[in-house]
Each structure stands twice: as C-alpha cells, then as structure tokens.
Amino acid sequence: MNRVLVIDDDQAVLNYLNIFLLQAGAFDVTTLNNSTKAVAELKNGSYDLLLLDMDMPEVTGLDILKSIQKDGIDIDTIVLTGVEDVELAVSAMKLGAIEYLTKPVDNERLITVMNAALENRKQQKIINEDEPVSVVDPRFREAFKDIVTHNEKMNKIFSVVGKMAQTDNSILVWGESGTGKELIARAIHKISRRSKQNFVAVNAGAFANELFASEFFGHNQGAFTGATVAKRGLVEEADKGTLFLDEIGELALPIQVKLLRVLQEGEFFRLGSTKNLKVDIRIIAATNKNLHEEIKKGNFRNDLFYRLNMNSVYLPPLRERKDDIPLLAHHFLHMFSKLNDKKVEKISDAAMKILTHYDYPGNVRELMNIINSAVIIESTNELKKKSLPHYFLENTVIGEGDVNGVSLKTLEEVEKEHIKMILGFTGANRTKASQILGISRISLLSKIKKYKLE
C-alpha cells in the first residue's frame, strides 16, 4: 500500500484528509500537525507521497520543500494551500512540487492527481532500476516488433507500457520529435482489449484550428460553406477503438473544451448539429512540449491535462540510447536497399563511427532519413562516409581540435553542459531533471557533485 504523509497545522484538515484517504482504500496515511518535525519524519518514514500545506508557523511549506531538495529525500509532493498565490505556486514547483491545489480541494481531483503521481513514480522506479528486468511479456512481443531496439531502458519501458495497455486509461506519451511516440501508441492499441477495433491517428498540429473541429467531430450537411454532405469525424471513426492525438499541445483552447467533454462524458456534437452523439473510445495523446509550462502560459487546460495523464510514458531521445544506433542503422540500410532496389549490404567502419558520434536532434526519424539518403547516393555494396548527407558531416565532430571552426569538446564537457541546461529548464528540480535525462536521481546527484553544479 502506498504510504502518504500529510503535513498541515490545521488539525481539522488533517482529520478530514485522514478519513477520506483511508476510505479510498489505497493509502497508508500518516498525519503531522507540527511542521518543525517534518524533515525528521520524512527522513525516517520512507513515504511515497507528501501532501503539504504552505502557510504554517515556524517552518513553512517552502522551508520543507527546500529541505527535501537539499537532503535528496525521495518523495513526490502535492501542495495543498488555502491561498491562491501564483508566485508561491511557481516557487513550490521549482522546488520539486508536482502539483499545487487550492483548498477546499475537490476530492475526485485530489485522488486523480495522487494516483497519477504514484503511478508515474512506480514506472520511473522500474525504468531506473540498475538490475536487468525480464524482457517484454512474450504475449506482447508482436506488438513491439516495429520498434527496433536492444536498449535495456527501452525494454523496461515496453514492460511498463504492456501493463498500462491492458487498462482502459488515457495515456500521455511524451518525448522529443522522432522518438517513436506513434509506434508506442500503436503497440498499446494492439495489446488492449480494443485491438480488433479501429486505431485512428491524427496530428493535432496538421490542421488550421477552424478546420480541425470539422475533421475531428464531423459536420452536418450545410454546417458551413462547402459542406454539401454530412461527414463522420475522426472521433466517430475511432468509436469502440483507440484515438491517437499527436502534438496534443497544439490544440486550440475551444477544441480542448470539446475534447474534455469526450473524455468526461463520452459525448460530442457534430458541427451544425444539436444532437448529442455518444462514443466509446480510448485516447492516447502525445506531445513534445512541456505541458506544465503550457498550462502556466494559459495555452493548455489543467483539467484536460489530468484527464489525459492518467498514465504517462517518457521516450528517451536517441542520444541517450546510442547503443541502438548500429542496430537501427543496419535495419534502415536493409530496408532502404530493398526499397530502392540497391545492393548496399554493409556500413563502413568510418561511416559507422561518424553515425555514432552525432546527437540526432531529430532522433530515430533523422537517422532513418540519413540512411535513406546515403543508400540512394551510394554506388557500391558498402555505405561509405562520403555518401552521408553534407549537413550531417558538417555537424558531426570526431577527434581533437577544431572542425570547420567548431571547438570540439570532451564527452564530460558535453555532459556537464547538458545537465546544467536541463537543471535550468526544470528550475533545479532534480527529480524532473533525472527523468528528462533518463538517469536515476542518485546518478544525477552524483554527476551534480562531480561537475560542481550545486
């Protein structure tokens, strides 16, 4: 059972939350009304989740968050406060809080946030464990066959995804462009109970906002100029199946409201109609944006985020799984040799060396395009360095000294700069930084000390 610590100086609040959470049946609850004892309790208690009040005498909620960060205490924190203070909320999030809720807290919302936080924590522990885990459940291997990898971290992600897929929860897949988010969504669909039904994929950033509603929800005849016949939308096409929404962060706010209704009530309206239509779909969303930042900017609805983020999957960029580059390069070599009716059968050592030294901002998709281009140009049976795209050769550095005026750096220098950048991006939130970097929190703390980034 998940261990939850609630810290608040108001005993009435503690009593209420204690009873409410115990009745939920999934939490082992401890309450504390003396904030001066908070840090000692956190160090000794091995808690999974902290519900923390901000406005307390002597030791405030911010003081406790600072101690958690300073001492490296492994716990996720949800802030509960009676004051709606944006500046305080931002400070709390920078210090590691994962959510900021205003009292009186909506019970359903609190449980949703707690469950999502605990599920993400469990997944991250599985992924960050140093010990090898068993490979993907044999029943699900076919579902992941299109994702080429022998990376241990990816196999751990497959193991977690296999478990998520068997529920009917919405899932948010996040990661950089080109990391394989749609492939993961398709694998989830294949494993799920909806596998015999439609899988409908739509890129939310591909349509102008005024066209998206028509494509997404459909329209009646005469709904707008040019609507000569009624048309079923993507939501109807996905009925009983799975709807995959890529680039969910690009959705306009009015469409977000309608999507939220689909998630909450399973109903929607076609354009030009007042008839309420019912639909039964599972939604998998994907994004390469930081949706927490988009929420702060007012570009993304908080309530929609929590509905979509019942479970979440983070896909690491290719630069964090470079052991997969040779495997992927040969896979694409054979694929495009066959597709282009070429007989390029191998990759030269020089070409492979330079392929493995590149950071791939476009991730697996970029590597695929590089190999495709090189196969078309190559005239022998071996893919050579000279056949690789010009931009790629210019932007790849190997060896010592300068190349094309670019100062070359050691791996340690690159790692130090990248960790520093991610820490800046997360506001020094080490838990979030470790998740983005794809390493354990302990490993991150070690590197921070090594590079003197404290």
Question: What would you say this structure looks like, in words?
Answer:
The chain is an alpha/beta fold and about 450 residues long. The protein has 4 domains: about 1-105, Response regulator (Rossmann fold, 3-Layer(aba) Sandwich); about 140-315, P-loop containing nucleotide triphosphate hydrolases (Rossmann fold, 3-Layer(aba) Sandwich); about 320-405, Helicase, Ruva Protein, domain 3 (Orthogonal Bundle); about 410-450, Orthogonal Bundle (Arc Repressor Mutant, subunit A), CATH 1.10.10.60. The chain contains 19 helices and 18 strands. The strands form 6 sheets. It has a 5-stranded parallel β-sheet. Strands 7-10-13-6-14 form a 5-stranded parallel β-sheet. Helix 6 crosses helix 7 and helix 17 (about 410-425) packs across helix 18. The protein is globular and about 75 Å long. About 35% of the residues are buried. Mean pLDDT is about 85; it is low at about 130-135 and about 400-405.
CATH topology of the largest domain: Rossmann fold
**Tally of alpha and pi helices:** 19
What is the percentage of strand-forming residues?
15-25%
**Name given to the CATH homologous superfamily of the largest domain:** P-loop containing nucleotide triphosphate hydrolases
What is the structure about, briefly put?
The protein has 454 residues and is of the alpha/beta class.
